[in-house]
Every structure is written in C-alpha cells, then in structure tokens.
Amino acid sequence: MLLVPWVSSATARADATSCVDVQFTPTDQLQIVAWVETASGQYVDTLYITQQTGSFGLGNRPGRFDFNSGPNWPYGRRITTFPVWSHHHGLQFPTVLFQSATDPDPDYCFAQTGTAYTLCSENDLSHDFSQSSRELHYCRPLNYYDSNDRPMWDAGTCATTAYSDKGKFSTTATTGYPPRIDVIRQGQDSPSVDMYKALDPFDAISAPTPIGGSATHAPWAAAMTAGDYVLFVETAKEFDTNAAYDSTTYPAPSNIVFADFGLPYRGQPSIVYRVPFTVGSTSTEAATATYFGYGSPDGTDGDIRPADGTITTDTPGSGAARLELVSDGTDMYRVRVTIDPNQGGTPPLAPSAFAATTVHAGDVELSFVAPGVGPQLAQVSGYEIRIRASDEMTAANFADSMPVTAHVDPAAAGMVQTFELDGLLPETDYWIGVRAFDDCHNAGDLAITHVVTATRTSGSVDACFVATAAYGSLLANDVEMLRRTRDLFLRTNALGELGVEAYYTFGPLLAAPVGESELLRATAREVLAPIVARVRRLVY
C-alpha cells in the first residue's frame, strides 16, 4: 500500500556568515572526511564525513582493529580510517567492546598479542546467540576462499540475514570515533546501545560514500569571522597496497579463531590533503593538486607524516591519487574550496510528486520532481534523504531519522529524479523524507512518502541457515563447527553430498520463521544439541 506524499511547511535556514563549498572527485570505495581549522591549528568544525564512520561506527565497534576485512565487514574498530581527524577534533567517546570483554584497558590489549587479546575477548569473530541481535547494515563475515561465500564476496552483497554483537561501552578506554547510531536495543544487546545515537554529533553531516568518478560537492554553512583558515580532507581505502604497505608488512592477525575469514585489509595509510583559505567580505577560492601527507598506519596518533616515497602517486585510485586530478578550465586540482558571503535569499522549494515507483520485499525505487531555488528556479546543490521504520516521519523528527546511502545527482528544476533504497525488511512500514538545499546549505521544505514493503519471497540462503537462525550468528562456535564438518566430511562422498543438497533445498523454508522467533530458535537449539555433541566427538 502506498500513501500520497505530503509536504511540510517547516523550513530549515542556515544561520551563517559564509557559504563554504568543498569540491573533489573521488575514486571508488573511499572513506572521506573534511574539516576546518584555524591557521594556528585550532579545530573549527567537521563539514563532511562518509556514513560508514559518521553513522555506522566503523571506527568504534567491537573487535581488534587489525581483524581481516571483506564486503561490509561487521567487526574490528578501524582506528586507521581517519587517525588525523579523530585526534584533531578533540572529542572523546567510550570505546565499544564485545559484550564478553572483561575490559582491562583496551589500549594495553591492542598493544599485545596472544593471551592479552584473549583476556580482552576482542579476538574472536564468533559470539553466542545471547549476545547477537539482528544486523540491518553490516554483513556477516565471509570466507574469500569458500565456494559458498565467494559469489557474495565478489558481488559485495550480504549472503543472508546476519546477526552481530553490538558491543558495550568500555569503562576505561576512549576513542575519537563515534559509535554507530542505527541500532535500537533488543533483548540480547547491552544497555550501552541505548546511548549510541545520543553520543554521535556527526550523524547530521554524514553522507553516502560518493560514487567513484562523480564530482562531489560538500556545501557548509559556516559562522566564521574574517581571517585565515585551513581545510583538511582525509581519505582512507581498504586493500590499497603497494610495496611499502602490504599483507607482508601488515599481515592478518595470528592465533585467533576464524583467522581464515576475510583478507588482510591494511594497505597505504590515510591520505591528507590541505588547502589554506581566507574568509573575508568578498568571494575567495583556493585549491590543491597534491597531497600534504599521511596519517598513522596503526591509528595511534594524529600526526601528519610528510609526503614521501612510500605513498603511490601515479596510480589512479591509489595513495595520493585517491582523489582524481580534475580541471576547472584553467588549473588542475584534487580539492578546491570556494567561500562566498551568505546572501540568504529564498531557500529551495520542496520536491514534488514524491512516491515509490517499484516496491519489493527488500528494496524500493522512488522518484520525485526536482525543485528549484528562487524566482529563476536555479538548480539545487543537493538533497538530504532520511528513512524511518515503523514510526511516522514528521518535520519534527526528520533530523533524528536515519540518513540513507542513496546518491542523487541534482538536476534542473522540473526534471524527474530517481533513487533506490535496499537492505529493507519485508512487510514493513517505512517513511522516507527528502529535502533540497542550496549552495549555502539553506534547506527547503520537506517531502515525505510512506511505503510498505512487499511480502517475503523465497530464495537461496547461506549454508547452515537453520543452525545460523537458531544460534543467531553464522560464526557462533557450534555453527562454525557444523559448517566445517559439512565441508570436511559430508561433501567428500556421494551420500553426504546428497544430504547436503536436500538440506539446501528445504532449509530456507525453515530458517525464516526460526530466525524471527526466540521460542523456535530455542527449540531448534535443543534439536541440534545432540548433533552438535556428536560432531564434537567426531572432530575433537
């Protein structure tokens, strides 16, 4: 069922003296943050951050920082993503640990190996069902060399519904990275989860990871006095290896459970671009075509290492060339910033005819007619899109709703704009809101539409799906033991292979209801208990 969209009368106006617009063209799969400091090095504000770090807790989630990685990997606090920014902004957040962690000082744990990590319980990808709740953003870990996992790895998609430990706050350790804001505490989660969203000040400016090759604008309405400032842009990318930074220099962690999941991700460190600029009574512009330096390879400090020969400079998408070199018609730049006095004026109109055009169980496609700015209906600078599940969105709660990763390139007023949302749940009410903003981030009126996703469809799911649904996580210890027993014993003979194929045929029909009912999950665990006991004797 679709309801007619409505438009709010509320208008968000930026109270600012200057309109700052940062422009760059990223390559694929970058994490990006941009912030401003005074010429003397005093932090002013963060104006742009990609959502994985700004909203989904990439830098502050359970697990040791050097865990392997893969498509949308759920565990391991990536403190190497923005080490310069995370130390420069001056804020501190409690470090998120696994619920099973005994919480000695994690800084000590991360500096040690072997038993120190074991004591901290930050060392294991597997977690009991009593500590794992349904995961709506990250995928479960994938094994790159497993024939069942490889298709999902190559496609970069989640294999099945995943479950993960959302963690708890450390009582002693802090970090410069915010926790994720997209979870609502369930029975298995720590009470710390209730505080995650309230502690994240960067959610409002978090943006989807831009598509590689797309010219990107980060407009910012700033209240800055006249003077000299510095813009910093820090970029990070997994698996960006070269001769100085590769899996030999930074190998996968050893002596941990499930070490064969994922691949070593640590390549070249974060790359920092620096652009000094001036704010005055007239428009100004500044740019850079070269990188300034790089961040800590292990994320332990906020120092900027000077540019040197360890960083790749001549390979598009790698190292210093993570941001493309583009021309403005006269000069070449990788980062450009323009500063104009805020003239105020009329904010953009609201998008019109906002509605879903295609609705499936797990995704929807939506469209709207692009609004304009002012009497001449000039093109807007961008859109802010947010989603809310099972709770009606209004102008009052729009800012508290979840920003989405959909990217919409602005078009001329009157043109039809489309975008897709995926990763949704079947048979669920969603409210989606969109509003346009101008080049000083003056926001227009809000358009909202209501969508109910379609009913569940049958299809293939991951191996061991019934056990996964019962235990809450594919990597629960007993599930992984069953999975490996299947591969080592059952799939090596014709009778065993026939049994496995039968399980694949009928298992998906059982897994869906089991995974959504704690009573059925408990019953399934009881049924699996003697099988698990028998397998333990067989394996050990």
Write structural notes for this entry.
With 540 residues, this protein is α+β, with helices and mostly antiparallel strands. 18% of the residues lie in helices and 26% in strands. It is built from ten helices and 25 strands. It has helices at 51-54, 83-88, 106-110, 115-120, 150-155, 193-199, 465-471, 477-488, 494-515, 518-539; strands at residues 2-7, 18-24, 31-38, 43-50, 93-97, 133-135, 162-164, 168-175, 206-207, 216-222, 227-236, 271-279, 284-288, 293-294, 305-306, 326-327, 332-333, 335-341, 352-359, 364-369, 382-389, 402-403, 416-421, 429-437, 447-452. A seven-stranded mixed β-sheet has the order 9-4-3-11-12-14-15. Helix 7 (465-471) runs parallel beside helix 9 (494-515). The longest helix is centred in the C-terminal third of the chain and has 22 residues, at 494-515. It is globular. The chain starts with a strand and ends with a helix.
Record the strand order, biggest sheet: 9-4-3-11-12-14-15
| Largest sheet entry | 7 strands, mixed
Q: Which structural class do you get from the secondary structure elements?
A: alpha+beta
Low-confidence stretches: 1-15, 111-119, 459-463, 500-506
Shape: globular
Quaternary state reads: single chain
Distance between the termini: 54 Å
Percent in helix: 10-25%
Count of discrete alpha- or pi-helical segments spanning 4 or more residues: 10
Gyration radius over CA: 24 Å
Beta content comes to 25-35%
Would you tell me the overall average pLDDT? 81
Number of E-type strands: 25
